Structure formats: structure tokens, C-alpha cells
From TrEMBL:
The keyword Oxidoreductase applies. It comes from the Bacteria. Keywords: Oxidoreductase. InterPro entries: KR_dom, NAD(P)-bd_dom_sf, Sc_DH/Rdtase_CS, SDR_fam. It comes from Shewanella cutis. The lineage of its organism: Bacteria, Pseudomonadati, Pseudomonadota, Gammaproteobacteria, Alteromonadales. Residues 7-166 form the Ketoreductase domain. The keyword Disulfide bond does not apply. Belongs to the short-chain dehydrogenases/reductases (SDR) family. Pfam families: adh_short. This is SDR family oxidoreductase.
Length: 243
């Protein structure tokens, strides 16, 4: 890999699951990292070289910008931003607490926009950069009990493609990674125990789900393509996952 591929990579939601797996994968590829999540100790426990771990809430735009400025002073300009932070709160719209909708919209949509806003102007000015947004199959089709969550992930798909078109002539890439069922902590955030039990049964019926490492490998593959090649979207799911 060339030195150009050793640029700073920023990863949100890096404390566990897909974010932690992506951090390990990009670190193994030789990249300096800025790891962002609310749980700083969990990120520090990854013990990755040339990495800076900062506790940040992605809904706080100024905190994201401050953390990125700190990392750029140490490692140079951001070459890749991976917006991975997200929350999945499943429920029926007529019974779900509306506060859960607000939480998902703020983290899953505003958090992504805040990250993009922090790096995009610099990438356009440098005529180089990649933004990878971790969305979901639920950003392409609907599922029972997923209405509000699907709304946030459809938004991620839409804003990624919209911005990709806007900055294509600036040689900046935007990429959507859309996993299906993955073995992470994401389901644990759902407060409806019956829905959680049904989701677990669905995973067992499929014979298991994909791993965070599978998603990390797809993300690294998309990033490692030449800058003039934009893998616009990767959808990956367990082979037995039908929807």
C-alpha cells in the first residue's frame, strides 16, 4: 500500500461490534485512527497502535469537530470517515415511546450528517477523501417492527447517494455499507422483550448471522479501491436471510 493509503481514518461508534471490528481491520492495514464513541475505556482497551480514542456523542457536532482537529494535528488530514455509530430500537409505532424515535433520528441521521459536515469541506478542498456510512438492509426495504428504524436507515441511504453525486467532481467518494443481520449489541437496545425474542428466533432459523468482521472486511475492500473507483454500495447478509 502507498503512503496515500495510510491517511487518518475516523471511526464513530468504535467501542464495540462493527465499529471495533472496523478499527482493528484498518489498524492492521497500517492506518492511524481516531476512534469516537461514548465509552472511551472500551476503545482504549482495543490497544491499537497510532490511535486516539475520544469520548464523543455524535449528536454533538462541535465535539466531533474538536476531536477531528485534535487527531489531524497529530496524524494529518482525514482520508476516510466511517460513520458507524447507530442505535436500533424496534417497536410498533402505535405503542412505541416516541422518545425512542427521537433518539434514533438524532444518532442515526443527525450523527451521520454531523460527521460528514466535519470533514467534507476539507476533503473537497484537497480533492481527495472517502466517507463510508454504515447503513442497513433496513435502509433498502421494510421489516415488521422496524418502521422508525427503517426511516433512519432509508435516510442514510438517501443522503449518502445525494452527497455522492454532489461531490463526485471533487474526487470525493461516498459509500454505503448495508449489512443484514449481524451479531452485535444493537438488538440489546430494544426495550420490547417480545420483539427481541422474536428477533433471536429469526436469527436461529437462519442458522446464524454474519459477524462484525464480515462487515469490516467489506468496508476495508471498498476503501482500498483506487480513488477513481467508488464502490457506491455493498449489501451483505447471511445467505439464508431472505428479506
Amino acid at each position: 500500500m502507498t503512503n496515500a493509503n495510510k491517511s487518518l481514518v475516523v471511526i464513530t461508534g468504535a467501542s464495540s461490534g462493527i465499529g471495533a471490528a472496523i478499527a482493528k481491520s484498518f489498524s492492521a492495514a497500517g492506518h492511524p485512527l481516531l476512534l469516537l464513541a461514548r465509552r472511551a475505556e472500551a476503545m482504549q482497551a482495543l490497544a491499537l497502535p497510532n490511535s486516539l480514542s475520544i469520548s464523543v456523542d455524535v449528536t454533538n457536532a462541535s465535539a466531533i469537530k474538536a476531536a477531528i482537529s485534535q487527531a489531524e494535528a497529530q496524524f494529518g488530514p482525514v482520508g476516510c470517515l466511517i460513520n458507524n455509530a447507530g442505535v436500533m430500537l424496534l417497536g410498533q409505532i402505535d405503542t412505541q415511546d416516541p422518545n425512542e424515535w427521537s433518539r434514533m433520528l438524532n444518532i442515526n441521521v443527525m450523527g451521520v450528517l454531523n460527521g460528514i459536515h466535519a470533514v467534507l469541506a476539507g476533503m473537497k478542498a484537497r480533492k481527495n477523501g472517502t466517507i463510508i456510512n454504515i447503513s442497513s438492509v433496513a435502509g433498502r426495504k421494510t421489516f415488521p417492527n422496524h418502521a422508525a428504524y427503517c426511516a433512519t436507515k432509508f435516510a442514510v441511504h438517501a443522503l449518502t447517494e445525494n452527497i455522492r453525486e454532489e461531490v463526485a467532481m471533487d474526487d470525493v467518494r461516498l459509500i454505503t455499507i448495508a449489512p443484514g443481520a449481524v451479531e452485535t449489541e444493537l438488538l440489546s437496545h430494544t426495550t420490547d422483550e417480545a420483539i427481541k425474542a422474536g428477533y433471536h428466533d429469526w436469527k436461529e432459523q437462519m442458522g446464524g448471522v454474519i459477524t462484525p468482521e464480515n462487515v469490516a472486511a467489506a468496508t476495508l475492500f471498498a476503501w482500498q479501491q483506487p480513488q477513481n473507483v467508488c464502490v457506491r454500495e455493498i449489501v451483505l447478509a447471511p445467505t439464508r436471510q431472505q428479506p
